């Protein structure tokens, strides 16, 4: 940016030595030409100016705000920074750490199941989102201390949420007709709308580059959104069909892939046009898959729930579906959520599966790690500053993290990016 101002200043100085035409904005000898050009540079307007086009330097990924990382024009820098961290490798073998000796039941003063989903926030904290818990709970990844925040209705009113702009979390209504916004800066909850909906309406959401939070349909067939630009609730014209979706995955093209749970096919929402298409591949329905995640090599990994097969969708090859192997010793209700570590591996979050595992998204190698300490243990997780994953306790009575032993780390821009900081 400074370089462009310097060039423009030099040109202005040169032109000031010559006779000026003040009335013609496209006359390079006019003051209006340069003032208009400077204004376009200051607001990062890349449109043509009198036949000239200013193309600014690419801003490094870690100099972007997290609200800018999912814009298509910034993908090249984001991808480069992610891969740079991956190349730093690991310092050892993963470990499971109980970072607080307080039990979940003691903290909440109530029974289970507690939470579903976790999100990082700009204040550095990780927030656990209520399932039956009476409060939102945060954890400070530096001190490992937790705090209880605003009370919520409970009774599975929400399943998951989405970090939008300015540190605001948008809770996804499940058994509640209200849409809520939670401000992580002041711990205030605000009702932002009310719509009569089917029970078990939505599961999580996705913050899209157009500024809208799209909610993932569960029993609802309508894709609703909250527009953070206009503070209004709207709906996509084309509904989804075929059953429940468990999760949404955003790609750099501005598309959201809704991961089927009881539904059999991925539905793809193009947020540029708000058109919906159906992927032809059948994933089987019957709660086969529970989550998905985008990797910088262009793959969307489908995280199994009841299915034994690990698939990925290759978005760089006409959305072809690739069989990536079989989950070791598969059972039912295996995972719920997945997190990408700075070491480059994927970590599905074990629910009823007996172990933690890692997936290498380059080779598809699956490695069995330590035991899952319980059953119906966790639902979701969020990445910390050094690649540790804060596990969202569901029926687990512990506060645990998975140390992935990454040598690299994600700067806040990437740690909070809508690509990966999601339910």
UniProtKB/TrEMBL annotation:
Annotated SUPFAM superfamilies: Calcium-dependent phosphotriesterase
Protein name (record): Uncharacterized protein
InterPro entries in UniProt: Vgb, WD40/YVTN_repeat-like_dom_sf
């Amino acid at each position: 940016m400074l370089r462009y101002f310097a060039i423009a200043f030099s040109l202005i100085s040169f032109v000031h030595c010559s006779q000026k035409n003040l009335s013609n904005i496209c006359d390079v000898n006019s003051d209006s030409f340069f003032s208009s050009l400077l204004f376009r540079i200051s607001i990062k307007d890349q449109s043509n100016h009198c036949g000239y086009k200013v193309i600014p330097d690419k801003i490094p990924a870690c100099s972007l705000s997290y609200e800018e990382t999912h814009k298509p024009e910034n993908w090249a820098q984001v991808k480069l920074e992610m891969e740079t961290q991956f190349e730093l490798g690991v310092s050892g073998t993963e470990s499971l750490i109980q970072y607080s000796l307080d039990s979940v039941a003691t903290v909440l003063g109530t029974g289970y199941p507690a939470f579903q989903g976790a999100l990082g926030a700009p204040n550095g904290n990780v927030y656990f989102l209520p399932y039956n818990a009476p409060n939102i709970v945060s954890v400070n990844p530096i001190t490992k201390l937790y705090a209880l925040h605003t009370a919520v209705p409970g009774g599975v009113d929400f399943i998951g949420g989405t970090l939008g702009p300015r540190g605001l979390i948008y809770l996804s209504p499940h058994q509640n007709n209200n849409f809520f916004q939670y401000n992580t800066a002041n711990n205030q909850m605000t009702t932002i709308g009310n719509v009569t909906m089917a029970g078990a309406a939505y599961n999580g959401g996705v913050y899209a580059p157009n500024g809208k939070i799209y909610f993932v349909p569960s029993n609802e067939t309508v894709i609703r959104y909250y527009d953070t630009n206009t503070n209004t609730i709207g709906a996509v014209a084309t509904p989804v069909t075929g059953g429940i979706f468990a999760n949404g995955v955003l790609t750099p093209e501005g598309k959201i892939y809704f991961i089927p749970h009881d539904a059999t096919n991925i539905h793809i929402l193009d947020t540029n046009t708000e058109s919906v298409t159906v992927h032809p591949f059948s994933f089987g329905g019957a709660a086969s898959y529970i989550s998905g995640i985008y990797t910088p090599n262009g793959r969307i990994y489908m995280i199994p729930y009841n299915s034994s097969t690990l698939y990925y969708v290759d978005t760089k090859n006409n959305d072809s579906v690739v069989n990536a192997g079989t989950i070791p010793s598969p059972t039912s209700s295996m995972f719920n959520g997945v997190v990408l570590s700075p070491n480059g591996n994927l970590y599905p979050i074990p629910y009823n599966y007996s172990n933690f595992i890692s997936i290498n998204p380059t080779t598809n190698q699956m490695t069995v790690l330590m035991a899952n300490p319980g059953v119906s243990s966790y639902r979701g997780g969020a990445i910390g500053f050094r690649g540790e994953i804060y596990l969202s306790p569901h029926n687990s009575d512990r506060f645990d993290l998975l140390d992935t032993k990454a040598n690299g780390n994600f700067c806040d821009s990437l740690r909070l990016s809508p690509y990966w900081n999601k339910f």
